[in-house]
Amino acid sequence: ARTLVMDVDTGTDDALALLYAVGHPDLTVTGISCVAGNASLEKVVDNTHKVLDAAGAPDVPVAAGARKALIERVQEESAFHGEDGLAGIVLPDTARTTSPLTAVELLRQQVVAADSPVTLVGLAPQTNLAMLLTLHPEVTDHLERIVFMGGSASVGNVTAVAEFNVWLDPEAATCVVESGIPTAMYGLDVFNRLTIPEEHARRWAASEHPAQRLTGELLLRRGARADGLTEQDYVGGIGDAGALVFLTHPELFTVGRHPVRVDLAGLGRGQTVVDRRPVSYDLQARSADPWQTLEVVLDLDVQQAAQAFTE
Ligand code: BDR
Ligand code: CA
């Protein structure tokens, strides 16, 4: 099994990702850190515990992290997932307790204590990850890879060019992108395209099994709040959970290796600039500047990836 630590801002699609990660026989989640993003930090932590309950997860430690970005506070919370972060889905109270450690310390401990190299999965603004990598560079030796949902090689969602997770903390994203750790970017080029057929979602939502039922309800509600859509307008995107499907089924995705930088200034702030030129006319040698080559997920086999999630 592959050992994972996850950083989340749960979030309807972070919830789907947690359900998938905890339920997948080849993945072992050893720690979960929370950050404000889709909802306030308190709600993100509470949602994470409740989703783990529904998933029937073992006692995975969950810690609270950053409430705001490193530099610029852009917003309180996102409207897309509702004020509660779970699009109004009410889950039973939880008996799980939050770790007394900070998110950064929990991540550090779980990463350095692991017997084999760990995959760090980021599904949220990257403030906790940036602090981990900056305060504890020794984790680098224990990390196999970072896989983050964020960014885009094409269009943005919050702005014309910036994706939400990167836009909320572009300086933090810079720390991750420039860390030198092997990193895969699962961005908007694929994020909205991995959808589950409606009949599956409706069947799961009617299930007695808590994890199946929550998966179905989340899928039915996702998109229901965006742009005035109602629950009848099924969208069915699994969002962040796709980054986990990429981890378990890389053969279903097309990946390019491209230099990437995060734009920090002005109109392009929060854009992941992906250099896909076949030939460049740069006057300065690329080796002299801090562009890091990342794996950029660019395309996928939608049907097979949906099938993998369903199984
Ligand atoms: C990202 O922003 C959040 O709304 C989702 O959870 C996802 O991580 C998409 O831009
Ligand atoms: Ca998220």
UniProtKB/TrEMBL annotation:
Keyword Kinase: no
Claim: NADP is one of the keywords in the record: no
SUPFAM superfamilies (alphabetical): Nucleoside hydrolase
InterPro entries registered for this protein in UniProt: Inosine/uridine_hydrolase_dom, IUNH, Ribo_hydro-like
Record-linked Pfam families: IU_nuc_hydro (PF01156)
Domain Inosine/uridine-preferring nucleoside hydrolase: 4-304
Enzyme class, UniProt record, top EC level: hydrolase
Any GO molecular function: hydrolase activity, acting on glycosyl bonds
Keywords: Glycosidase, Hydrolase
Lineage: Bacteria, Bacillati, Actinomycetota, Actinomycetes, Propionibacteriales
Protein name: Pyrimidine-specific ribonucleoside hydrolase
Highest taxon listed in the record's lineage: Bacteria
Enzyme Commission number(s) from the entry: 3.2.-.-
